[in-house]
Every structure is written in C-alpha cells, then in structure tokens.
Amino acid sequence: MNWFYLSCINVILYTTYVIIVKYISQHVDNLTILTYMSLFSILYIGIYQILSNNKIKFEKISIIFGIWTGIIYYLLNTAISIVSNPGLVLCIFRFQIIISSIMSYFIYGSHLSTYMMIMMCIILVGLFLITAPIGQDKTITQHSYKWVILSLIAAIMGSIGIIILKYININIHNKYNYVQIIFNIMVGICIFSAMNEYITTKSLYIKYKSYNSSNSSNIIYFILLLILGVVFPLYSYLLIKAVNLSPSPSMPVAIISSNIIPVSIISIFLFKNSELTYTKWGGIGIVLAGVFGLSSIK
C-alpha cells in the first residue's frame, strides 16, 4: 500500500481520535485520557508482539521521543477540551509545517525558496483569521487565547519532534521494526502522563468530572478509552510508514491535514457553540491551501 492510501486512512483515524478526545474530555479528566490511552496501547501492542512471536524490546531514544510526544498531546488534548470546535486547534497546530521548513533550512541546508515563503505567509494569514475575534463568534470564550497558546507550543514541540523522528528512522529503524518503535513511544507517553497525573492528583484512577454520572455512562467512556488505545498507535504506525514511503515527508502531513474539514463539520453537530463563522471557514481554507502548497515542493 503506497503512502497516499496510508495517509487517507490516517485522515479517518485522526478524525476519530480528535472527536473522541473532545467528547470524552467533557466528562473525563485530560490527564486520565492520555494515561489510559497509552496504557491500553502498550497492552495491545504487547499482545500483538507475543502472538506474532516478536520480541518486546526497549529502546531509550524512542522512549524519550515518547515522553516528548506525550507532552505534545497533553497540550493538544487540553486545547481540544477548551475550544468549542477542535478543528481550530488542528489548524493552529499546522503552524508546525512553517517551523519545520525553517528548521530544515538551518539544520539540514534544505531549500527555502520565495514560493515557500509566500506559502508560509498564506498560512499565517489563515491562522490570523482563525484566531482573531472577528464578528459574533461562539467559539470565542474566556479561554480563547489559552487554547491558541497551547496549540502553538505543541506545534513548536512537534517540529522538534520531527527532527527526533528523522534520527530514529535513520539510526534506529535498522535495529528495531516499526511496531517495536511505536511500542517504545507509547511507553514514553505513558511514563510522562502517569507521572504528570500522579504528581497533579496523587492518584492514577480514572477521574470523571461529574460524580453523578451513571455507571452506563462511565462504561461508555471506558470503552472509548479502549478504542483510543487502538486508534492512536495505529495512526502513529501508518504515519511513520507513509512518511518513509512518500517522495517528501511533508506530503503525508498535508493529506492528513485535510481532516480539519471533517472534524470541524462533525463538531458542529456534536458539540455546543461549535458553529464557525464565514471568517473562520475562510481561515481554514487558506491554511489548508498554504499547507498543500508548501508540501507540494519536492
């Protein structure tokens, strides 16, 4: 299966991830979501490795990268829980492609043309339209700038993460297969999230935001956490595969970025006050155009 089809599958997987995280975050603490999602991922991958007669190997660089990834997704999940429509968070996170292009220029001597700079400016214009409180916008709340800041920090950290991932692909993939690498990344995420949760709450139990929620509701949230435990590592695995198979690492990222549209539309039907103004829809379109334009350069 080539990188394009893998990326299209990831559009569905990442859309599912974001919608579930947004829904659960209304009822379950964010720290719990990341901890149990990564814990279930480790369990699933471990069972898969045992059934397929593959060894479970621990690798420190991948675990460190997992801790870094855990911080990124903690920030993203928190931003998703705050904003009314999580599609906006995904747009801000695409600022990552600008930072990655600039960092590649200074670190690897990659090409940085006038056309690329124009595409970067187009993305920035789209981001301005998304974040600016223009008109009667129900997505603007007292937490508006908090989710923007969290998303931007996650984007910056994600750009650095791409460099770490490139190192892993070059230096570690020849010793460990992709499943073993993903397993170690999930271990790193779980280490960060469990420590963060225990330090913050002095407990590792699943924390529900409402003490009056019914047992049937709690079971549904638990099942959704189990589903996240499958979706997230599968998404991560297919992303690494797609990046390695594609002519340019940024091309799969551009395809996956299109999940901003289904996430934004689905959120309108599922979550309160998630309707988007024409200005924000325009900003989303401009960001996507800039991302695809920047990613089309080989």
What would you say this structure looks like, in words?
The protein has about 300 residues and is mainly alpha-helical. It has one domain (about 5-295). The protein is built from 12 helices and no strands. It has helices spanning about 5-25, 30-50, 60-80, 85-95, 95-110, 115-130, 145-170, 180-200, 215-245, 250-255, 260-270, 280-295. Helix 1 runs parallel beside helix 11 and helix 2 (about 30-50) packs across helix 9 (about 215-245). The longest helix has about 30 residues, at about 215-245.
Write the layout of secondary structure elements.
Layout (H helix, E strand, L loop, with lengths): L2 H23 L4 H22 L8 H23 L4 H7 L2 H13 L5 H18 L12 H28 L6 H24 L13 H31 L4 H8 L2 H11 L7 H18 L3
Structural class: mainly alpha
The total count of strands amounts to: 0
Strand content: under 5%
Please, how many helices?
A: 12
Any idea what the radius of gyration is?
19 Å
Distance N to C terminus:
21 Å
- Give the helix level as a range of percent: over 70%
Multimerization status: single chain
Residue windows where pLDDT falls under 50 for at least 5 positions: none
Overall pLDDT score? 84
- Element order: H for helix, E for strand: HHHHHHHHHHHH
Q: Number of domains in the coordinates? A: 1
* Biggest sheet features: none
Overall outline: globular
